[in-house]
Amino acid sequence: MPSPMREIDGAGLVPDDALLRSTEPVILRGLVSHWPLVRAGLESAQAADAYLRRFYRDATVVAMLGAPDIEGRFFYNENLSGFNFRPVHVKLDTVLGELEARRQDARPPSIYVGSTTVDTCLPGLRTENDIDLGKRDALMSVWIGNRTRIAAHYDLPDNLACVAAGHRRFTLFPPDQLENLYIGPLDFTPAGQAISLVDFAKPDVERFPKFATALEHAQVAELGPGDAIFIPSMWWHHVEALDSFNVLANYWWRQSPDYMDTPTNALMHAIMSVRDLPPAQRKAWQELFRHYVFEAGDASSGHIAPDARRILAPLDADATRALRAQLLKRMNR
Predict the structure, then answer these.
(1) What range(s) does the JmjC domain occupy (predicted)?
(2) Where do the DSSP E strands lie in the chain?
């Protein structure tokens, strides 16, 4: 069974650098209990709905809609050729109205608005509901829906997720559990990130036998209104929204400079250009990646004069821009 997650008392806490650079997840109980949105959610779903509408300015969002029989699990269809839901562009107040209308249904359709920038869809909300993250230029997003299950996936940025209304259950796995989570296609995904194919509600142990090992390394926590969770970069996380109306706000930021490209592009390019080489050549490239990327240091470039190292020197914005242009030129031949 999954282990409980580390918890600290977050009430009145200003998260410090040590916490926000952690490589382990942590629950911060009561971190945002002072938010007006949280207080409205504790009063009732209707009060939280009314509070959100105060900031609505005719914003269009992407909502994921699924039939009642998917039971909140946004996923692929049976043969992975498509999905069991449909994305629609719709006004946010329409989504809120549908959630309200379906709140008492025994088997409602699944409704989910995910990762939508707060300043775009609810301008002004952040002014009244925010966290001091120091010098981090964090993007704040909002997630709204009914009872939903989001398959285990990873994100490149660090993530501080704050439950504003309803309850959520988080199940987290360290990055080294990749093989035991049975990840689906990398280039065809429900919402941008590759996901685990395991149904956590009823795992198929014959098809996915190593998932039992993943669970031995899992950490799980249930969060209520006002609680927050810090999810480090690259940790796999499965998220369940447990109530008929749920609101979560989160902050994303990267510890690397903005000019750095996403490593996902490097992975895709390596699959295209390295994976299917003959074994001896692939092993040679493995050594090159180790030498120049994963264990880069003085052994990689110390024998070259500093002003002649070019991309072997630490990159800055200008050097990265020039390298990107060079790569694009090569790829477009």
Answers:
(1) 111-268
(2) 3-4, 7-9, 26-29, 60-66, 73-74, 85-91, 110-117, 139-145, 148-153, 158-165, 168-173, 219-223, 228-231, 236-241, 246-253
d(CA 134, CA 298): 33
State the total domains in the chain. Answer: 2
Task: Please write the tens of the pLDDT for every residue from 232-280.
Answer: 999 999 999 999 999 999 999 999 988 898 999 999 999 999 999 999 9
DSSP H or E segment with residue 234: none
State what percent of residues in the chain have pLDDT above 70: 100
Is 268 domain-assigned? yes
Tell me, rounded to whole angstroms, the distance of Cα 58 from its chain centroid: 26
pLDDT digits (tens, 9 = 90+) for 69-99: 999 999 999 999 999 999 999 999 999 999 9
Q: Which of 253, 282, 317 is the endpoint of a domain?
A: 253
Sign of torsion, CA 69 71 75 80? Answer: negative
Three-class DSSP labels, 3-72:
EECCEEECCCCCCCHHHHCCCCCEEEECCCCCCHHHHHHHHCHHHHHHHHHCCCCCCEEEEEEECHHHCC
The answer, yes or no, to whether residue 331 has pLDDT greater than 90, is: no
Give Cα 285 to chain centroid, integer Å: 31
Name which of 147, 139, 133, 115 is nearest 28 in CA terms.
133
- Please give the average per-residue pLDDT across 283-310, as a whole number: 95
138: containing domain = 3-253
Q: Is residue 258 part of a domain?
A: no
Is the per-residue pLDDT at 161 higher than 90? yes
Which pLDDT score is estimated for 297? 92
Beta-bridge mates of residue 246: 145
Same domain, yes or no, for 237 and 295?
no
Distance CA 124, CA 140 (A): 12
Task: Pick the last residue of a domain from 197, 223, 253.
Answer: 253
Residue 53 in any domain: the answer is: yes
Same domain, 228 and 304: no
Q: What pLDDT is recorded for position 240? A: 98
